[in-house]
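=== RUN LOG ===
request id: a7f3
mode: sequence -> structure
chains: 1
length: 115
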Amino acid sequence: MLVETELGEAGIQHDMVLTIGVFDGVHLGHKYLLSCLKEEARKLSALSGVITFKRHPIESLNPAAALPYLVSLDEKVRLLKAEGIDISASKQVIALIAYIQRLGTDVGDSNTASK
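=== RESULT ===
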């Protein structure tokens, strides 16, 4: 699995199917979502990718909040790798919002996930 802080710096020249979430602990619900992600990526001959957070979004939006984590970022990446995810990127919430805004129309067909 490729792990990058910024997807743009990874130089990936391949289509990707992405999901975004905290993924703290990678429980059964996460595993189901990841299996759907991998299946959709396989159908499209694309890479599977996860964008997760260095800090929980609540902590980023409210610095006074101190939430407990089930696993460290390194352990989270290990768990995602164990699920067969091709790419994992960790971002700060504010940076993620800016990144999504920069993507604009490059996101692709928004109906793909509902097929």
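=== NOTES ===
Confidence is low (pLDDT under 50) at residues 107-115.
Helices lie at 28-43, 57-61, 73-82, 93-103.
=== END ===
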